[in-house]
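Re-running Myotubularin-related protein 10 to confirm reproducibility after the cluster update. Everything else is unchanged from the original entry.
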Amino acid sequence: SPFSVLGEIVVNEVNFVRKCIATDTSQYDLWGKLVCTNFKISFITDDPMPLQKFHYKNLLLGEHDVPLTCIEQIVTVNDTKRKQKVLGPNQKLKFNPTELIIYCKDFRIVRFRFDEAGPESAKKVCLAIAHYSQPTDLQLLFAFEYVGEIYHNPAKKVNGIDPGGGGGGISSASSQQTPLFETYSDWDREIKRTGASEWRVCSVNEGYMISTCLPEYFVVPSSLADQDLKLYSYSFIGRRMPLWSWNHPNGSALVRMANIKDVLQQRRIDQRICNAITRSHPLRSDVYKSDLDKCLPNIQEIQAAHIKLKQLCVNEPFEETEEKWLSSLENTHWLEYIRSFLKHSAELVYMMECKHVSVVLQEEEGRDLSCLAASLIQVMLDPYFRTIVGFQSLIQKEWVMAGYQFLDRCNHLKRSDKESPLFLMFLDCVWQLLEQYPAAFEFSEVYLTVLYDSARISLFGTFLFNCPHQRVKESTEFAISKNIQLGDEKGLRFPCVWDWSLQFTSRDRLLFHNPAPCVQNGAVKTFKRSKKNYSSTLRGVPPALKNGIISEQEFLPRRNSLILKLKPDFLQQTETQSNNMEQFFRDWFAKPVDLHGLILPRVSGTHIKLWKLCYFRWVPEAQINHGGFITAFHRVSLLADEVDMLNRNLRQYKSNSSLQGNCLELDQSRMYFRAGSLSDTSGAPDFLSSSFPFSPVGNLCRRSILGTPLSKFLSGAKIWLSTETLANED
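Result of re-run:
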């Protein structure tokens, strides 16, 4: 049965439906049954799919399924009456629809025709989809239904996995777990890992007694007593006390702080917090404050840019936008905002790395822009966060536990005016770094894209709530209403998105891995944190400045700076500091990159690119057969697999082990694409394209690709990234 998820029930269905594959012809349409469940919309067909060959499968979703939380807008059409209507959750439909168009949050457009279906049945299924995809209450999201079933039927599990685990789950052999930072011990381990000896785990918010939008445990300067923290908390917006994020090996700390709303107490409390941060620095270095609200785009601007980007990417007919493509892309401001975040994060990296000062990220509520900036700084500075488990722990620490409002920002309930894709922008910024330094990361861009998609699947609790307290409060209320005994549990345990085996087979999860991350001596070098990695860029200790606080204005950049945001009114001292900063960046880019140390973004126009795999994967006109990142991924995988095979053969030769033992090792290849044999010289598989593995070969409810100007131009471009190009890359 396609409905294998526990708690999933069929709400409505209609037979004799056509799924449109191309907009200008019906010859490729698929016949089948359209089903609405309380989890997804599903299209079930027995038709052969000559134009749609899927090469990867989500275990929770069929090939044509869309999770309800991924639906953006539902449009019903009646051809004969020339009517169309956008369906809200409780609206009536006065005409029988002949067509249903579903606009998805991942930029897909899915179209169904009801020419042969019963008109009343078609109307009912459209209304059911509209109703179930736009719930009025958080507890109506599917995760609650699933968890309720789990607690009433503890023997049942989805795909054999318990809910709530933090498993790294990337490969079956991986025993590493992703720290969820729900416990005292996770924070304590992070303090020890980063060597933050003058910081401590604070449990003053246990039971969410102080702030409902902070985690129960967080890290503060050792010199701040719990009693003082309780007192200071009243002065902060949302009672969000300063949160420690990370420590540099040189002792500089990264701290997040909400604004102080009590104007009379502002200077005094601000000074005390900064003094405590200074005392936690082994060199008693100064504190540098960055007001993110003043120097980065706000959430409304980011949302507006995302809407324009979506309109550009899903525009039909796509080829008509070709002539003005670059100017249209620039007018979205999306890449400009990506550049702003990367620039500003690089500036703050300089302050910690070179000036040895602690950095405080200040933001009104401290739970939007600071999530993104804090995460980017850590990805640049700490190679641990460029591993899969490390990156997942970073998202847990700086987004999930720090109170990023996933429910509102992702608009899971379809009624929030607070929607803004900051999490997507973060993944895009990380993709820019991955694109520039692929070997510095353990994961691939497929992993980043799948992670973005997972935020749109309402089974997982990870990206469902505005804060940890909301999960506890809402799930406790739900448990009481369903007679679920919680025992000592703090709320219900939802499936964790880091349990990737819920969604993908072990083979498909191999696509998450960079095939050759920092290969050294023929083996994958493990990412380790050591002070040695940072030593090449350390400079002198900064001079003590007044009150131990460096204001942002004292490090303003020059007008022609490529790294920093432009600001007016420069002073002579500012010019000197800016020169020092630019010299630091020039020196860094002039040296070979230590992929196990600091990485910095190149931010000039040509280096910031559109993340094509994520935004273009459903646009057949933009697909390049045998092109895109997957071409290089495929070839590097084959080379890495050949190296592995040679190593296995060498070990076998030395130990005279049996042939059977070697076959067993071959089955455990860490590559998605395998060399087969050392004499295998076959080219790339026919199904590879620039949208692999997300889009099938052929069209997805777009106009047919043959004959478009772009397709004619690309017909000769068989390989986007050749081995010759690779050889010439840095």
